[in-house]
Each structure stands twice: as structure tokens, then as C-alpha cells.
Design brief:
about 300 residues; alpha/beta; seven-stranded mixed β-sheet; two-stranded antiparallel ribbon; 10 helices; 9 strands; globular
């Protein structure tokens, strides 16, 4: 079975990405999307096993496992990367972002302003980089410092491209490959100062693939990284599940759910895992083309 960390990066290369950036600056977004359509098409035709994984995922999530649906999945991912480029260079207006639930927004802002730190459990559904724009938008919470755990060895070409075109990155990145006791202590100090942390909860560790819990997801068994949930709970701060989905009007909706559970530590861990999976599952059903996991996500053997 194909693991996510075995998937080779499909980026066009640094020089071609920079060329797209210059075209964007001169001609705008639509010409870039036009070019990206054909780049995605050629990449899709030669994608082999990744294409099959996309078909399986789409068959389960949307009921449509066709080649056309898989291509739409690829194209949605490519267009998301174009949006990400805009977000990293402050060209994506905050007016294109809104909270799907104003009550959840109020609860989140109350926790932000309490300055006790917040942990946001994200995923590879939608585009969490939307929050980068939001935190730099001059809103009442633009003082918040953001920290994020990422696999730095994945998507190196695109990440290096973003670093080259970004003048002011408000996010402090921690490589998940090198988390240790010192990192944990540093993160705890940051949270005590009111900073926030993003952790992805939908991909198992490339360095400890056995540290997982298995859950029903869209009718099949899937593994999730247990360490991300144990770590989040150990921080002893408010925890939210967050997804930023692209809507039909081109805007992004921030979708939240605060984790609430009383009980002993193990009971809270089980409930945290359960609530996160349920949150992610419900939104994956609604936005199957925005679930950007192009590998064998499920433990079960699935035939098209």
C-alpha cells in the first residue's frame, strides 16, 4: 500500500514555479490557472498509482470513482496551491475569508483574548493556509503569534518556492521529524504567552508509523497519528478542530469545533480522537474533492 510519505512531489520545478509567479504578477491569476490546468493534466496522465488512490478515495467519499472525478481532485489541489501562493504573498484579500459559524468564531476569539494559548487540530482537507491571511489581516487578533508542526522533508520544491516569494512569514515552523523534550517545553512557554499552535491529525508519522489509532472513516478503517492527539491533550489548553474549505463563490469558509470533554485523561484522549474523526469525516463527505490525500488512506484493501 502506498504511504503518504512515499508519494513523490509533483511540483513543476523551482524555475517553472518562479515563471508562474512572474506571470501572476504581470497578468493576474486567471492566466496562471489556465497554465496550471494543462500542467495538471500532463501530471495526471503520468501519475499511475497516485491516480488510482485518488479514484479509490473519491469512490468512497463521493460515490464517483471515475477518471474524470480523479482529475477534478488533482485540479482542485493544483488550484489550491495557486491560492496558497496568493496567501503567502498577501494577495489574497481577507474579504475572501469568513467564519461559517459566528458563534464558534466568538468562542474562539474569547479563547484567543484570554491569552492562555490555543491548539488547533487541522488536516489536509481544504486549505489551512487561509488562516495565514486571517492572522495578518489587521483584525483584532493580529497580535497572535502562530506556530505550526510540518513534515519539512515533504513538498520541498513548493515550500522553497513559497519561501523565495514571501517577505514576511508570520508562522514559526517546527519540523515534526525533530520533536523532543526541548521542543515541548518551548511550545508550552509559547502557549503560556498566548500563542497558538497548528497540528495536523490526519497523517501517520513517517518516523513512527506504528504510533496510530484505528477508526472507522467513511465506512472503512483508517489509521490516525496517536502522537498528535496525546501531544495536544498534554498541552492543557483549549483545543479546536479546524478546516478551511473553498466555497462555490471562491471564498474560504473557516469551520470550527471546540473540543469539550470532562473525565480522566484516557477518557478525554479517546473522546478527542472520536470527535476529530467525526468532524473530519462529515466535512470530507461534503467536500470530497478538497480532501488532499493522494495515497492509500484506508487500511482495507479497496478495489475499484
Amino acid at each position: 500500500m502506498l504511504k503518504w510519505y512515499e508519494v513523490k512531489e509533483q511540483a513543476a520545478g523551482r524555475k517553472r514555479l518562479m515563471l508562474l509567479w512572474y506571470i501572476y504578477k504581470i497578468a493576474g491569476k486567471k492566466p496562471v490557472q489556465f497554465i496550471v490546468f494543462f500542467v495538471t493534466l500532463f501530471a495526471f496522465l503520468g501519475s499511475g498509482q497516485i491516480k488510482k488512490c485518488s479514484q479509490k478515495l473519491q469512490k468512497i467519499a463521493s460515490g464517483n470513482g471515475s477518471i474524470i472525478q480523479a482529475f477534478k481532485h488533482f485540479l482542485s489541489y493544483s488550484y489550491m496551491l495557486v491560492d496558497t501562493m496568493e496567501m503567502y504573498t498577501d494577495n489574497f484579500g481577507v474579504n475572501n475569508i469568513y467564519f461559517a459559524d459566528e458563534n464558534e468564531k466568538r468562542i474562539l476569539f474569547n479563547d484567543f483574548n484570554a491569552k492562555h494559548g490555543v491548539c488547533l487540530l487541522c488536516s489536509h482537507l481544504g486549505n489551512v493556509n487561509t488562516m495565514r491571511t486571517f492572522f495578518k489581516s489587521g483584525t483584532e487578533i493580529d497580535w497572535i503569534k502562530v506556530n505550526m508542526f510540518l513534515e519539512v522533508n515533504q513538498c520541498k520544491i513548493f515550500k522553497n518556492f513559497l519561501a523565495a516569494i514571501t517577505s514576511d512569514d508570520p508562522v514559526n515552523v517546527y519540523p515534526v521529524e525533530s520533536i523532543d523534550l526541548t521542543t515541548s517545553m518551548e511550545i508550552k512557554e509559547k502557549l503560556d504567552d498566548g500563542e497558538i499552535i497548528f497540528i495536523a491529525g490526519d497523517r501517520v508519522s513517517a518516523h513512527n508509523s506504528d504510533a496510530v489509532f484505528t477508526s472507522d472513516f467513511l465506512g472503512y478503517k483508517a489509521n490516525f497519528p496517536e502522537g498528535a492527539f496525546r501531544f495536544s491533550l498534554a498541552l492543557d489548553v483549549p483545543i479546536y478542530f479546524i478546516v478551511c474549505t473553498k466555497e462555490k463563490d471562491g471564498r474560504y469558509a473557516i469551520r470550527l469545533k471546540k473540543f469539550i470533554c470532562d473525565g480522566k485523561r484516557h477518557e478525554r484522549l479517546v473522546e478527542l480522537e472520536k470527535q476529530y474523526v467525526s468532524f473530519l469525516e462529515n466535512l470530507t463527505k461534503k467536500y470530497p474533492l478538497q480532501f488532499y490525500n493522494f495515497y492509500d488512506f484506508f487500511c482495507d484493501k479497496i478495489d475499484l
